[in-house]
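Hi,

I'm pasting everything inline rather than attaching a file, because the server keeps stripping attachments. The sequence lines come first, and each chain or strand is labelled.
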Amino acid sequence: MRLSSTKQDPVTFLSLIRQCIDTKSISDIKKVQTQIMKSGFLLGFGDKLIDGYLKCGGVVDARKLFDELPKRHIVTWNSMISAHIGHKRTKEAIGLYKKMILEGVFPDEYTFSSIFKGFSEMGSLREGQRAHGFSIILGLEASNVFVGSALVDMYSKFGQMRDAKLVADRVVKRDVVLFTALIVGYSQHGEDREALAVFVSMINGGVKANEYTFASILIACGNVENLGNGKLIHGLIIKSGFESVVASQTSLLTMYSKCGLIDDSLKVFKRFANPNLVTWTSLIVGLVQNGKEEVALTKFRQMTRNSINPNAFTLSSVLRACSSIAMLEEGKQIHAIVTKHGLDRDTYCGAALVDLYGKCGSTEMARLVFDDIIELDVVSMNSMMYSYAQNGLGHEALEMFNRMKDLGLQPNDATFVSVLIACSNAGLVEEGCQIFASMKKNHDIELTRDHYACMVDLLGRSGRLEEAEALIEKVRNPDVVLWRSLISACVIHGEVKMAERIKDKVLKLAPGDEGTHVLLSNIYASTGNWSQVIEMKTTMREMRLKKDPAMTWVDIDREVHTFMAGDWYHPRSKEIVETLKELMERVKSVGYVPDTQFVLHNLKEEKKERCLYYHSEKLAIAFALWRTSNKTTSIRIFKNLRVCGDCHNWIKYVSKVVNREIISRDSKRFHHFKNGSCSCGDYW
DNA sequence: CTAGGGTTAG
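And the predicted assembly:
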């Protein structure tokens, strides 16, 4: 801007400032300010200049000038305060608020409408309440809906919904903003039904919802999986013409996926002309929640191809997709993207990475990520603990548990699930019992079925069967899973009589429980009681019960290969059998003896051996060894059931003769086979 | 010359 040196009258100054605002140039305002100061007119233009600075985003420069002025208009105070709030300079905004009161300038309705947000952002409930009191004295609380809704928002953010409601009820003319603030407050504090009630009363009161209201109320519908209302509101959105507003569309998408209608979410998504980052992320999250992890990854790639950069939200969700189905290779690629965006140390991404590596059996890698997280929280620590628990590292898990307490973090119910599994898998029976006892006493944790299940497993596995039974008796409505886990403990310890007694209990509770039948036939088979096995199998057939077939899968070069016992559908079955034969010879030569007690059919020894031969994990391992070179130092397999004793023993030998690490995740935990032994110490 | 509410994560 060229400043004229001749014309220095007030009218010129005003128009110069206006020009600066139009061009959003802070440096130009500075020049104008210098010129005004030279001409001695500053006092008259102070407020105008500040207005100019603020409109151009120059909060710091505005403040500098503001402090030099001897007197400022109330409007200028208010502009300063709201601009500081808007620029997240909360402390300074509150400082200005206090300063104005000290200087005898009373806050007005404009001041209050901005300053309450400052208190909620600072987390200063007390100060907020004091300011609230002041607004009542000045008669501005109920008479001005801007002040009222700012207050409702503040109390909502503090979770003080009673106070939020009280203020809302006192406001004379309630509008859509006030109602929306109340709806959001309720829904963000788990009172979604209350949120819906507010919405209904708003509509009945003749106040029309807008895009903000729709966005918020749909979240409430999703949270309580209230599809009926969700659909009604979808209709209302169309009627009110907000169909193409991104935020309400995004909430609509989320609502459908939370209600399990992922196809409807996809339909909503298709109508977006230009989906933004939040929309893409919502879709990805929905897909993961609905078990469509692979689609989630495809969508993620599509998103990045459309040059939309992921943020921590997106990346942590994509990582969840990878960890929930243990896609380690994909996960590693996402990890690289996380690093590229500098989010390795982010609490959410960090926790998701820990979860990924933990669920893939790489506890060391999980720990490396974990140690880099800047701000640890309960979830990230739970993930680390769970990883230790699954891999049988009980002491490390307990160490983490203690560190959590040292950090002053409140352990939650998931924490205890991990800790108890850790104790169970590492055989830390006494420790587990003590921790279990302390949960309610010292941590005020509500005991869930999961906790009881962990304890039954812990006691049962270590042979304390009666204690385990007594514990189940204490549960109000013990479910089949608890009893079943006790029966499987009986199987491990060969307690046939007890198993039968418990079976009768279970079948009274759930007559057709297939798991129980399977377990019983297992215990009969392992003790050679074939007539009982046949009887059980007949009963099962008559009741049309089918057990889940054992399956093992292995991920090689991002392709998942699934194997079932004795199935030869794999295109490479010829190579698999050859590899298997060769392996068998090699492991037998170093001491492996097939253990046919794990064959649960009444067959001749020779045939039993063949049965063992073709267990799904053996097929998967043979395939993996055939497909990968010796340079691949470790092989990862996954199994839907628990590993059988013979396979466990066999894999130990295999790991020795091929000199590779074999990591196996079964339905209960990880086994790391290396150089002839397993990380579980044969206790599982 | 100034003011209030909304969309994505374990």
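The first helix of chain A runs from residue 10 to 23.

If the labels don't parse on your end, tell me and I'll reformat.
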